[in-house]
Structure formats: C-alpha cells, structure tokens
Structure to design on (336 residues):
C-alpha cells in the first residue's frame, strides 16, 4: 500500500519541498544549534536592544522555540541586523564544510538521487521550494550532474535574472535544470550599499558594504519578504505550488506561512498526492495530515523498530518494522 502511494506521488512529477530536516544529515545546524549560537554571540548595545533581547531569552527559557520567541517580540532594526549576521555566520560555517567535502567527493547527497529519479521522464525542469538558506540543494544538483538556478544568472558575480528566466544549454540541448525557489533567501545573496542585489558564493564573512539577504525568523520575516529578491522567489514558489500535481516534502515542519497555505489550498481543491518524510513529524505536520492534506497523503517518521507510516486509511500510524522509509535513502527504495 505505501509503495503504491509513493509511486503515485512520483508519477505526478511532484514539486520538492525541502525543510531544515533535509540539511541536518549534512551537519547543518538545526534550530536548537542556531538558538545557542545567537544567545552566545548577540551583544546588545543600547536599552532598546537590551529590553527586546531579554524578552526573547525569557521566552526561550519559558519553552518557546526560536521562531515563536522572535515572532512575539518587537525587535529594533539594529537587533534584527545582528540576528541576521549571526545567523549567516553560524550556517555558513557548516555549509563551507559540506562544500569542501563535496569538492573532494566524500559527501553523499540523498537529494541527488531524488532529483535523478524525478528526471527519469521527459521533463527538463523540476521545481524545488525551500525555506533553507544553505546550498545543499545546489550541491546536490551539481553532484548529480544537473544544472541549477536560484533566480540569478550564472557566474562568480551574479545578477538577478529579472522577469526572463535564463535557460541553460549543454551543447544544442536544454540542460536538465533544478529550479530552486529560496523563499527565505540564501547564503549567496547580498545587498550592496546602493541597494542593488548580487549573488556570490562567499565562504568568509562579507565586507560591511554587503548585507546578507536572508530573512530571520520572527516578525521581520514578513516585513522583509515584500522586498526583492524575496518577493520574486515567493511569487515563483507560489506559482509552482499552485499548479503542482503532487508534492514530496523532506524535513519540512509545516510551520512556514509562506508555503503551507498553498499546500492546503491545492490539497483541498484537487486532492493531489503528497508525501512527507521526517525523522520526527512536528505537531504542525500531523495537524496538516489529519485535517488538511486530503486523502492521498503518505507520511513517514522514525519509529523504535523502523518506520511509522501515516495514510488516510491509517491516520494514527502503521508500524513498518526494520525499514527506514522515513529517510530519503530509505524512501527511494520504494520508488526505484
């Protein structure tokens, strides 16, 4: 039964949604590590920052997760800037390690196998929507011999594509391309002093004249995403999510209001197949599956003896012993 649902989802040429759980196996920091890094590195310099940052830390001590703590506190712009810079440094440090391992060929990307499997069809483009700042999707594309695009033209110093999407050719043929919509920004994106946007693969702390273009968790996420290049990334993601015939979600917690509404709308309107993979399904993911995912859903999470699978027929979960279907590697055995 689960194999049939998984194969049905793959047959729909699904949009891939990558959350932080897709990057954790590569050593990228999760929310708890990012929280610890922010608490250790943020130093306030005025009473307004002092008060706001203390409120955040009080909320964390009371049990709120990082995004909730930041969302419920009004932060001065100067403190938001410090949070963004500290976040960039924390994630970039680990991302660089992944890059170096990929460069010498020792890093294995399960997402590469997913991309290659999806290209076993006539399509020349697959769409990936991600809330992650890191470059794991890009590295996975490179490792699979695929072109990728994040909304910027190729090069060491990259300018935005604008309204015309750049087509990549290999020889006389259009290259198979992974189109990556990074709705919360990227480690590669920066704003110059004159307000223009540039993309470059920096692995060291950028000069002060380049501001990292990533949106921090919390209220500022909703303010900043009205600006470019976030606005174009979100609009592009909205288009592919609205027209998708299926979804494969890897490590996505269903806590992001830029993505989940489109999933809910599409699943309710057309009952498209959706597959969710996670080591631990969040409460938000389980709520989505229970009341918003329609009847063509399949979800896996780790269990003591293997995997717990959730379907419309088994909403409370079904134990599958000795199988790691919750992992991307394990899941791929169902569809290959």
């Amino acid at each position: 039964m689960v194999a049939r649902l998984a194969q049905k989802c793959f047959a729909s040429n699904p949009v891939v949604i990558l959350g932080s759980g897709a990057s954790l196996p590569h050593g990228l920091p999760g929310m708890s590590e990012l929280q610890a890094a922010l608490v250790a590195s943020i130093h306030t310099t005025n009473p307004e920052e002092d008060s706001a940052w203390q409120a955040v830390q009080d909320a964390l001590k009371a049990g709120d997760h990082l995004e909730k703590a930041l969302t419920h506190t009004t932060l001065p712009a100067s403190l938001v800037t410090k949070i963004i810079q500290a976040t960039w440094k924390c994630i970039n440090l680990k991302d660089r390690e992944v890059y170096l391992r990929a460069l010498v060929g020792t890093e294995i990307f399960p997402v590469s196998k997913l991309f290659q499997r999806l290209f076993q069809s006539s399509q020349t483009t697959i769409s990936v929507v991600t809330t992650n700042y890191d470059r794991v999707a890009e590295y996975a594309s490179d490792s699979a011999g695929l072109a990728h695009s994040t909304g910027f033209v190729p090069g060491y110093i990259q300018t935005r594509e604008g309204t015309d999407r750049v087509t990549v050719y290999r020889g006389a043929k259009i290259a198979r391309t992974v189109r990556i919509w990074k709705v919360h920004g990227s480690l590669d994106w920066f704003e110059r002093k004159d307000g223009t946007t540039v993309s470059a693969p920096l692995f060291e702390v950028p000069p002060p004249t380049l501001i990292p273009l990533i949106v921090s968790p919390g209220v500022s996420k909703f303010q900043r995403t009205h600006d470019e290049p976030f606005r174009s990334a979100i609009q592009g993601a909205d288009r592919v999510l609205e027209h998708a015939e299926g979804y494969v979600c890897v490590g996505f917690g269903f806590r992001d209001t830029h993505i989940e509404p489109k999933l809910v709308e599409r699943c309710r309107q057309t009952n498209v197949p959706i597959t969710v993979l996670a080591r631990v399904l969040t409460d938000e993911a389980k709520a989505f599956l229970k009341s918003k995912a329609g009847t063509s859903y399949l979800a896996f999470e780790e269990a003591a003896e293997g995997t717990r699978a959730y379907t419309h027929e088994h909403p409370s979960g079904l134990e599958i012993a000795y199988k790691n279907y919750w992992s991307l590697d394990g899941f791929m055995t169902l569809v290959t």
Observations:
- Residues 77-103 form the longest helix (27 residues).
- The CA atoms of residues 173 and 334 lie 31 Å apart.
- The chain has one domain: 2-335.
